[in-house]
Amino acid sequence: xxxxxxxxxxxxxxxxxxxxxxxxxxxxxxxxxxxxxxxxxxxxxxxxxxxxxxxxxxxxxxxxxxxxxxxxxxxxxxxxxxxxxxxxxxxxxxxxxxxxxxxxxxxxxxxxxxxxxxxxxxxxxxxxxxxxxxxxxxxxxxxxxxxxxxxxxxxxxxxxxxxxxxxxxxxxxxxxxxxxxxxxxxxxxxxxxxxxxxxxxxxxxxxxxxxxxxxxxxxxxxxxxxxxxxxxxxxxxxxxxxxxxxxxxxxxxxxxxxxxxxxxxxxxxxxxxxxxxxxxxxxxx
Length: 285
Hints:
- By secondary structure, the protein is of the alpha/beta class.
- The protein has a single domain (16-274), classed as TIM Barrel (Alpha-Beta Barrel).
- The protein is 40% helix and 15% strand.
- It contains nine helices and ten strands.
- The longest helix is centred in the middle third of the chain and has 19 residues, at 163-181.
- It starts with a strand and ends with a helix.
């Protein structure tokens, strides 16, 4: 199985790690850590050395408390130099731009990005599907509700008794938009949006029922890294200390059908998922 994108294709024959490079002052876990292009590119170097298959660059926070939307100009000022630098350093590694804005996505692709990770699932910018289609970009279509300022809160976290069914239904609407714009299915990955417009119990149910997303016929990405529900379960308040809980959630997601994993801490994700995958593949069934 291959995930096609603007500069090639990524094999999904084993778990794929998407390493996070946030160039924001206010992300919930690592905001403000990468204050310069050089710091960001060195961080990308470390993630790739640790086993990342994709680097995801984001310039606008969707943190659970007090996320402040930024305009396209500021977002591009943050991300474009980083994308250009990492693309030059690692031309063999696909780069993803984490944005909800078509203008930012288009500019990032021009600088070397080949994947667009739209956490709004094409809801917030009607031009985004067409932009991705024209560029031949790979896309991550994520489930969420609301806008940048509140999509990671629980303001819109009201579901029926079947939260997984609700998420699948809403993802279908995003996939319809992708199809209408001409985005080929082999370029699409879906993400259930763990922690986005979801309470802890919703995230747990989605991870437990992840195999149901196979009805969409597309590869599944999960982003559980350092999330609030892990802190609730483990009693670990500091997001950066939630690595062990993240590892457990990722392995469970792999067993239930996920194949791509967006993480802050690449090395433990790479090692744990590779071992779990080897065990799964060794089953005689």
